[in-house]
Specification:
Helix content is about 85%, strand content about 0%. The protein is an all-alpha fold. The chain is built from 6 helices and no strands. It has helices spanning about 5-10, 25-60, 75-105, 110-145, 150-160, 165-210. It is elongated, with a radius of gyration of 25 Å.
């Protein structure tokens, strides 16, 4: 049982001999906790973006993806990149505004509404990142098959042996398995980070509902 729960019980206990906490004092504690959680959601989302950006820059600098240089200048990739960065900027703005709204909330009903809005925004953000991963793989795989020298050699060999369908089926299965693993890892990361924060935020929401009873 955390400090807030103990203090709430103190506030509700009419027989206690020590000073009571008022409704507003408990509300302010919940508000402060909620504001801190939402601030961390905003900060972590920015840090996550910076991490992936540095990963991409590092891979490019190392020459790891030189074979796909044409991919990054293709119209489709440029459009996808612009859309992705634009939507990410929108989510960062939403996270920041959620923090500002919660930080300046002056009543429990509005605070509860803002908590629900924050939860929806985080879920949408996670869904967007997973969708970008799937779309990115779906876009990059055909390019890799058509432009990577080793892959093209394998395709030609499969054609010569009359096993082109078998080859593409194998590529599809391996890609699907890799994608499932990548999505599972991302979901685990989001569950460990955002999931824990959302559970704390949900707990605050329930505490507010109890105070309103």
């Amino acid at each position: 049982m955390d400090e807030l729960e103990l203090l709430k019980k103190d506030w509700q206990n009419k027989d206690a001999t020590y000073p009571k906490l008022s409704y507003n004092e408990i509300y302010k504690m919940i508000l402060q906790k909620s504001s801190s959680i939402v601030k961390w959601i905003f900060i972590i989302s920015i840090l996550e973006f910076v991490f992936w950006l540095f990963m991409a820059i590092g891979l490019k600098a190392s020459g790891y993806n030189n074979d796909y240089g044409g991919l990054y200048t293709s119209p489709g990739f440029i459009i996808l990149s612009i859309l992705s960065y634009g939507i990410l900027a929108y989510f960062f703005y939403k996270f920041y505004m959620n923090y500002k709204r919660i930080n300046t909330t002056d009543n429990s009903k509005t605070l509860m509404e803002n908590i629900l809005k924050t939860r929806r925004t985080v879920k949408q953000y996670v869904g967007f990142n997973l969708a970008v991963l799937v779309i990115g793989v779906a876009y990059m795989m055909p390019y890799a098959i058509n432009h990577d020298e080793k892959t093209r050699a394998l395709v030609e060999t499969a054609k010569a042996n009359g096993e082109i369908f078998k080859y593409y089926l194998g590529v599809a299965i391996v890609t699907l398995i890799s994608l499932v693993v990548a999505v599972a890892i991302l979901l685990l990361f989001y569950w460990l980070i955002y999931g824990l924060l959302l559970r704390s935020l949900n707990k605050n929401y329930k505490e507010l509902k109890k105070l309103e009873v």
